[in-house]
């Protein structure tokens, strides 16, 4: 069961610098992660930490300038478009913004059929599969002939999830899939992710800026900061008793919905920051 | 040469389905299509409709008046004007089409390649485009005529090349705007080749702007062509409208009506093309408006259907005369810093109904108190905040209730708009605002410092030097390490967190009594959010200012608020002390919201809000709680967002 | 800023060379027998051949172009092949008329379009409707057709203006005023209608920006928001429209000059191209392109000044 599905070793992603002879920008500085079959790795970090770049590098949407990505035993660091097409059966994606991740000009049925037809699925088989998918994500069957704009954010994200599930993938890269959603909708979409994993055994790389979300959905958690992974391990440990100062800061910065506990968290955070500042000035001296 | 066409990546959505339908519901669109249809028919059947050959000259009967054998008279060579007009339509329209075809043939593929791949082709093509656009077009056309002979076809091909940059730029911008859209990424992940991505996902976006552009280009082509021929550069053997115009103008003293006909034909055709282009554009914009309204409506959930009968039609809206007639506020409520009573806000719709977004909302804020307004998108929390500030959109109406600030009405009973006169005296001075999105709320064209200094000079009536000194103090106070540098920076040179600090500095700069903070930390990273919350708390304590904190985050509420107002669908569902609401919520919706919070929940368990899987629950007490919620999910919780949306559709 | 300007000037020079070469090539292949045109029908074949040699018409394309370009670099644009006038002289006689016309028209357009567009955006109501309808009508009627209608009504029917230019060499300002008023108005009208429409949408787009709301919340007056913030942010869009209109006018003026029989550069261009008077045509092209490059550079500099973000990059 616990077979290694994805391993990323020492991955480097560089974007060319803006302007003539500018230094290239290093978005990932040698990142290593691994995901076993049927497991979820939560990837948490702030904007600009490189977490989204890591997801995009796996999908072939960001330039890999060093290191390797091994998926299902194959090196896919520099997969060609043809290899990607084959790969898309096993490796899929759900993006953050449900408003731009679905082509507004296409009907939901066509959106869901796209990954199927490109793999050569027949029209009738594709229709059958689309019906199953809509059921699976809890959308009515008549959604097929509707366009994305007729749906709310949460429903659009369900369509995006259905598209990712269409080919029964082994791994789905989920790039902030709930951050654009309202609280109650977020809860329901997270439930859907958990149910799908329970039913299909799919693995997730779950990217989020929200420690609570990542803790809730992941087996393991990796924390990114400025293009590096600063801490990774079992979700419970990393998200409740973090060791790295950055993770500690992250945990203590996220407010809890109770005034007194929040006041305490605030005090702890102050203490941590003061200690860090003291460390810093001590080492400077 | 041609007007720029706006591009919206979502525009493609409208083309396939209802664009044609929408053009035909627009009277001007119908007129345009009708005129063009007549012109095209006349051109197609010119040989049948024309009584004479275009060049048949009745030498003995030149410049004849309209009537008799010659319906519209004859020209200076005795040729039948009506026949020439018909043949002219043929030649003029066909050559204009050729021009557009050439321009599209060059501009579209080049734009697609340059926009999609970028790189050296893009650089080269863009340079070449600049070259073409700097060419003095008419000189090139004149030279081309000298080189290649006086043919309308040749000059229109040349002109097509000259205006191809219009299509190139249009296509390139459109492609660039969608090239990085997530749905194109999704197609790449699915392994679609570039060719299929372009045809399936990108061409659809270019299509509508292309139609608009082509309508304009056809008009310009006809204009330029007739202009050239007017200069006497046409082929006299070819009857086109321009040649007729030229002949007419030469004989304007003898027979002024001669040039009326080609002018009419040219004006009507170009006018129809312009109208058609506008109709397509309007149809697209309408579509977007509908889409946007729908998005808002689905977000605003059930509020769409609600129509407040008390609201009169938009036409007899009156804003009350100020001050003199202002009634006194309800006795015993003067001491509240702010009091909102039974407030209603709505937007009149085209069909005369009113879409109500805030209904019967009441709460108050006392001096030095922080009141959190919590709700999801569409709950009306921001609309409530903006009605207090008097910054609602022009189309909004107060549909009921009052707002009073420091013992005087800002919205008196019966007012249908917030009185700008009354609020102008308060905004900036006594009521301040902290927005959600830090970057878009600073004017990118001015330095940070001047955006702080100017309001202080206006509001406090102090000198620039004094205001500058204060602004630097404020920047230091809000925790900016190097105030001088930030003061001199442009907004794009500072980070989001710093920009939010600047905005907070701006809000407190004139020592207000009430600050309205609309999701002040939502756009920030969580560590920055914690810092900004600290700052807000310190400032609030120090200044003793009242705060309305609009947010969707209970953690933020717990951090700052003394009291909480929970809103849903434009109404207040529950209000009270922060501990009471967060620890023992009475209302079902508040409980649903709190239960959706992940903090403190058992990881890897479903939260029970989604059917059908039963939630795994750790304790008996929680089981009872979840049981209650799932019950509700079946009945009353049709009120939760998505369920309503499904019903509303 | 300086490097930016220098870069733009350098690319302008490259553009100038490219366009000159392109036009020269086009003219080289023109079918007109220039020598025959100059000498008339009575000349013998030998005379024509001799003339061709004299003008260098028997030389290959590049030799002729380099010869011309060399002249330009030393400030000599050559002489007309048909009369003894130097190109520089003949352009200098005509440029003032054309430039006056275009500059007056573009200034009027800028002022009127800004006032109308802003009023339409801010006040809405009937001004807005007039601007919107005007834009459609302005787009529908080509400028020169409008000019023809003007001539017919105001000059021929009502006799308020002369239908033909009264500008002679050494004419006083009154002659200029009388002769240029009608054509300038004709050129302005169509440009204003579309310009006002575009200013309107640019202003509306700015008024909907978040920072405008924040400025209001700070107690900044509507007037200050409009003139200091909104107008400034909308200006780059307006300037770009104006520069395009300016280039359009440089072309359109050729026809306008023909209609009003103005002795400007356009009329010169028309006669020179139909005769094949290459030195004159090249002179006209050179001057026009230089004007276009200068205008574009000025607009870019102004936009950079207006938008600090552009300035940095």
What do these coordinates show?
- The complex is a heterotrimer of chains A (285), B (649) and C (313).
- By secondary structure, chain A is an alpha/beta fold.
- Chain A has one domain: Rossmann fold, CATH 3.40.50.
- Chain A has helices spanning 51-58, 81-87, 108-118, 123-137, 153-165, 183-200, 211-217, 235-240, 245-253, 259-284; strands at 4-15, 25-36, 40-44, 64-71, 74-75, 91-94, 171-175, 203-208, 220-225, 228-234.
- In chain A, the strands form 2 sheets. Chain A has a 6-stranded mixed β-sheet, with helices on both faces. In chain A, strands 2-1-4-5 form a 4-stranded antiparallel β-sheet, covered by helices on one side.
- The longest helix of chain A is centred in the C-terminal third of the chain and has 26 residues, at 259-284.
- The model of chain A has no long low-confidence stretch (mean pLDDT 91).
- Chain B has helices spanning 12-16, 19-25, 27-44, 46-49, 81-117, 119-134, 137-148, 152-179, 182-189, 194-233, 241-250, 257-299, 381-389, 420-424, 448-460, 464-477, 483-488, 496-508, 526-543, 554-560, 578-583, 588-595, 620-634, 641-648, and strands spanning 338-348, 354-365, 370-374, 397-405, 408-411, 431-434, 514-518, 546-551, 563-568, 571-577.
- Chain B has 2 domains: 17-293, Orthogonal Bundle (MetI-like fold); 317-648, P-loop containing nucleotide triphosphate hydrolases (Rossmann fold, 3-Layer(aba) Sandwich).
- In chain B, the strands form 2 sheets. Chain B has a 6-stranded mixed β-sheet, sandwiched between helices. Chain B has a 4-stranded antiparallel β-sheet with strand order 2-1-4-5.
- Chain B starts with 11 loop residues before the first helix and ends with a helix.
- Chain C has 13 helices and no strands.
- The mean pLDDT of chain C is 85.
- At the A-B interface, helix 2, strand 6, helix 3, helix 5 and helix 6 of A face helix 1, helix 9, helix 10, helix 12 and helix 19 of B.
- Chain A: Residues 6-251 form the ABC transporter domain.
- Chain A: This is ATP-binding cassette domain-containing protein.
């Amino acid at each position: 069961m616990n077979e290694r599905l994805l391993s990323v070793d020492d991955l480097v992603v560089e974007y060319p610098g803006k302007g003539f002879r500018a230094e290239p920008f290093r978005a990932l500085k040698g990142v290593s992660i691994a995901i076993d079959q049927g497991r979820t790795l939560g990837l948490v970090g702030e904007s600009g930490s490189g977490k989204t770049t890591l997801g995009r590098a796996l999908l072939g949407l960001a330039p890999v300038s060093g290191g390797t990505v091994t998926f299902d035993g194959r090196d896919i660091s520099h997969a060609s478009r043809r290899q990607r097409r084959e790969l898309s059966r096993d490796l899929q994606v759900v993006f953050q913004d449900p408003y731009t991740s679905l082509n507004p000009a296409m009907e939901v049925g066509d959106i869901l059929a796209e990954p199927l037809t490109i793999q050569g699925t027949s029209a009738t088989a594709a229709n059958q599969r689309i019906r199953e998918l809509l059921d699976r994500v809890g959308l009515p069957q008549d959604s097929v002939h509707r366009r994305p704009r007729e749906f709310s954010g949460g429903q659009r994200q369900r369509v995006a999830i259905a598209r990712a599930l269409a080919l029964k993938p082994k791994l789905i890269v989920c790039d902030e899939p709930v951050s654009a959603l309202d609280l109650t909708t977020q809860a329901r979409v997270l439930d859907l992710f958990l149910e799908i994993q329970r039913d299909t055994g799919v693995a997730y790389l779950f990217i989020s800026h929200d420690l609570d979300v990542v803790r809730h959905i992941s087996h393991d958690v990796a924390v990114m900061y400025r293009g590096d992974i600063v801490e990774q391990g079992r979700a419970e440990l990393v998200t409740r008793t973090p060791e790295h100062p950055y993770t500690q800061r992250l945990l203590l910065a996220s407010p809890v919905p109770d005034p007194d506990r929040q006041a305490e968290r605030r005090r702890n955070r102050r203490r941590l920051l003061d200690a860090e500042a003291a460390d810093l000035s001590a080492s400077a001296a | 040469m041609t007007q720029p066409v706006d591009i919206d990546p979502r525009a493609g959505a409208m083309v396939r389905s209802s664009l044609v339908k929408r053009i035909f519901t627009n009277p001007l669109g119908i007129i345009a299509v009708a005129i063009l249809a007549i012109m095209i028919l006349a051109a197609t059947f010119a040989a049948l409709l024309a009584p004479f050959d275009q060049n048949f000259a009745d030498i003995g009967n030149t410049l004849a008046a309209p009537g008799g054998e010659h319906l519209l008279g004859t020209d200076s060579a005795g040729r039948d004007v009506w026949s020439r007009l018909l043949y002219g339509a043929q030649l003029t329209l066909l050559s204009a089409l050729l021009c557009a075809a050439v321009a599209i043939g060059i501009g579209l593929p080049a734009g697609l390649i340059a926009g999609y791949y970028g790189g050296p082709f893009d650089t080269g093509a863009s340079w070449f485009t600049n070259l073409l656009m700097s060419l003095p077009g008419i000189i090139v056309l004149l030279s081309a005529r000298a080189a290649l002979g006086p043919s309308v076809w040749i000059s229109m091909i040349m002109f097509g090349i000259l205006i191809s940059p219009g299509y190139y730029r249009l296509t390139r911008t459109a492609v660039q705007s969608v090239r990085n859209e997530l749905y194109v990424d999704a197609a790449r992940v699915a392994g679609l080749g570039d060719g299929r991505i372009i045809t399936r996902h990108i061409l659809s976006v270019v299509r509508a702007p292309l139609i608009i552009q082509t309508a304009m280009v056809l008009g310009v082509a006809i204009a330029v062509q007739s202009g050239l021929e007017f200069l006497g550069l046409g082929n006299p053997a070819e009857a086109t409208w321009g040649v007729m115009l030229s002949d007419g103008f030469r004989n304007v003293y003898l027979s002024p009506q001669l040039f009326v006909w080609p002018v009419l034909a040219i004006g009507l055709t170009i006018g129809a093309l312009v109208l058609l282009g506008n109709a397509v554009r309007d149809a697209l914009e309408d579509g977007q408006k509908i889409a946007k309204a729908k998005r808002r409506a689905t977000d605003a959930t059930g509020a769409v259907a609600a129509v407040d009968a008390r609201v009169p039609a938009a036409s007899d809206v009156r804003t009350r005369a100020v001050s003199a007639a202002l009634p006194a506020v309800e006795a015993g409520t003067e001491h509240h810093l702010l009091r909102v009573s039974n407030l209603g806000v709505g937007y009149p719709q085209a069909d005369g109904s009113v879409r109500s977004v805030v209904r019967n909302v009441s709460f108050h804020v006392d001096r030095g108190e922080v009141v959190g307004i919590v709700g999801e998108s569409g709950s009306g929390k921001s609309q409530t905040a903006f009605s207090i500030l008097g910054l609602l959109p022009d189309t909004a109406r107060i549909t009921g209730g009052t707002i009073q600030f420091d013992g005087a009405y800002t919205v008196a009973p019966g007012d249908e708009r917030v009185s700008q006169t009354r609020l102008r005296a308060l905004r900036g001075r006594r009521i301040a605002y902290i927005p959600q999105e830090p970057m878009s709320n600073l004017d990118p064209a001015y330095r940070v410092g001047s955006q702080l200094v100017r309001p202080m000079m206006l509001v406090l009536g102090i000198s620039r030097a004094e205001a500058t000194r204060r602004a630097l103090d404020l920047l230091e106070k809000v925790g900016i390490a190097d105030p001088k540098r930030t003061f001199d920076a442009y907004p794009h040179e500072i980070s989001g967190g710093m920009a939010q600090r600047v905005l907070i500095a701006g809000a407190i700069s004139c020592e207000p009594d009430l600050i309205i903070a609309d999701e002040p930390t939502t756009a920030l990273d969580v560590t920055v959010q914690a810092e900004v919350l600290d700052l807000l708390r310190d400032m609030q304590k120090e200044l003793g200012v009242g705060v309305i904190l609009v947010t969707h985050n209970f953690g933020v509420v717990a951090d700052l608020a003394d009291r909480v107002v929970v809103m849903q669908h434009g109404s207040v569902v529950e209000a009270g002390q922060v501990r009471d609401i967060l620890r023992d919520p009475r209302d079902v919706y508040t409980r649903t919201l709190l239960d959706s919070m992940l903090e403190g929940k058992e990881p890897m368990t479903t939260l029970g809000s989604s059917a059908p899987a039963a939630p795994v629950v750790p304790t008996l007490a929680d089981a009872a709680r979840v049981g209650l919620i799932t019950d509700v999910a079946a009945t009353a919780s049709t009120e939760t967002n998505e369920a309503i949306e499904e019903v509303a559709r | 800023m300086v490097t930016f300007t220098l870069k733009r000037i350098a690319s302008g020079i490259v553009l100038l060379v490219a366009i000159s070469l392109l036009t020269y090539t086009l003219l080289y292949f023109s079918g007109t027998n220039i020598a025959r045109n100059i000498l008339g029908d009575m000349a013998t074949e030998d005379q024509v051949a001799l003339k061709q040699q004299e003008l260098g018409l028997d030389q290959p394309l590049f030799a002729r172009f380099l010869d011309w370009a060399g002249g330009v670099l030393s400030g000599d644009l050559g002489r007309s092949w048909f009369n003894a006038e130097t190109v520089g002289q003949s352009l200098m006689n005509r440029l003032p008329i054309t430039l006056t016309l275009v500059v007056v028209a573009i200034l009027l357009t800028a002022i009127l379009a800004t006032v109308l567009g802003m009023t339409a955006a801010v006040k809405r109501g009937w001004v807005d409707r007039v601007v919107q309808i005007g834009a459609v009508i302005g787009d529908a009627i080509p400028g020169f057709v409008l000019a023809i209608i003007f001539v017919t009504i105001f000059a021929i029917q009502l006799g308020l203006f002369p239908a033909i230019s009264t500008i002679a060499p050494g004419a006083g300002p009154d002659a200029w005023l009388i002769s240029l008023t009608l054509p300038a108005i004709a050129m302005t009208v169509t440009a204003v209608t579309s310009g006002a429409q575009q200013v309107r949408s640019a202003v509306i787009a700015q008024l909907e920006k978040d920072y405008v709301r924040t400025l209001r919340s700070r107690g900044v007056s509507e007037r200050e928001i409009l003139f200091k913030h909104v107008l400034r942010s909308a200006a780059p869009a307006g300037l770009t429209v104006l520069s395009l209109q300016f280039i359009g006018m440089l072309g359109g003026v050729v026809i306008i000059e023909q209609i009003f029989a103005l002795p400007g550069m356009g009329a010169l261009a028309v006669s020179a191209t139909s005769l094949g008077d290459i030195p004159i045509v090249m002179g006209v092209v050179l001057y026009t392109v230089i004007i276009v490059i200068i205008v574009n550079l000025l607009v870019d500099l102004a936009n950079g000044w207006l938008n600090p973000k552009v300035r940095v990059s």
